Amino acid sequence: MSVKKQCVSLLKKFFSKSIMNYKTYFRFLIFTPIAMIFIAVALDFTYDFPESVNGYYGQLASDGFSNAYNLQLVFALLAFIMDILMCFFVRYSRELWILIIAVFYVFASIMPELTIMSPLSIVMVQIASLMAGLKISLAYLSPPIRDLF
Questions:
Q1: Residue 130 pLDDT > 90, yes or no?
Q2: Which entry of 64, 101, 106, 125 is 20 to 30 Å from 79 by CA?
Q3: With contact defined as beta carbons under 8 Å apart, do 18 and 109 qualify?
Q4: What pTM did the predictor assign?
Q5: Which of 90, 92, 86 has the alpha carbon at shortest distance from 132?
């Protein structure tokens, strides 16, 4: 067998087993946005905001956050749990994820508190949102993934 045929054969084996595995790609689309959200939050803790922003959040912490803010955090946690269930292809996890994310965004829109984020955190959250959309469209529209639920 020639060297060229051996290389092509090795590349086919490599791409067919590791990179192009639908389950691996789907799980990547689950865990990467979660990691990006946690990294974005950690970046906001280290970002040097102006004193007025720090004072605003200090005043909010002493006065107490609104119920909409607290419910938004609960639904964010539930969305992360649904992500983990989707990783294991649990039945109805896709539908529950969509419902929970919709409620999360409703509470985010009626929340009276301001959300102030660093520029890099904003970009990371937006990319994570795009990846979440790709994940859910893949879960519904891709036959190899859709059939696993």
A1: yes
A2: 64
A3: no
A4: 0.72
A5: 86
* Integer Cα distance of 137 and 19 in angstroms: 20
Which residue's entry shows tokens 């007025």? Answer: 52
**Tokens 């595995």 belong to which residue?**
21
pLDDT for 17: 57
Q: How far apart are the first and last CA of the chain?
A: 42
Q: Which residue reads 């092509």 in tokens? A: 8
Percent of the chain with pLDDT over 90: 37
Which residues are within 8 A (CB) of 94 and not within 5 positions of it... i.e. 6 or more apart? Answer: 86, 136, 139, 140, 149
The two tokens of residue 130 are 């795009």
CA-wise closest residue to 86 among 24, 26, 25: 26
Q: What is the pLDDT of residues 14-34, one digit of tens each?
A: 556 555 588 888 899 999 999
**Nearest to residue 30, comparing CAs of 74, 93, 114?**
93
